[in-house]
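Quick question, first post here. What does this chain look like in 3D?
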Amino acid sequence: TLTRCAQPSAGLGIQRCAPDENLVCALIDNNANASLLYIVDLRPVAVAVGHSVLGAGSESVTSYAGCRLK
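> Answer (accepted):
Ran it through. Tokens below.
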């Protein structure tokens, strides 16, 4: 499956989003061909870091069982 989402609002507080985590679990559970989901961030590193400073950025991949960040 190829799924796109908007940037999370994790920010400096590293907040979690239960609905996002549930969606990722559903994607893994409904993929009969694999038990691993790759999360790919296509933004340049400088942009991702800049967004993090502004209160946006990235969530921790450890919040998503069965996922790897690429």
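The first strand starts at residue 37 and ends at 39.
DSSP finds two helices and two strands in the chain.
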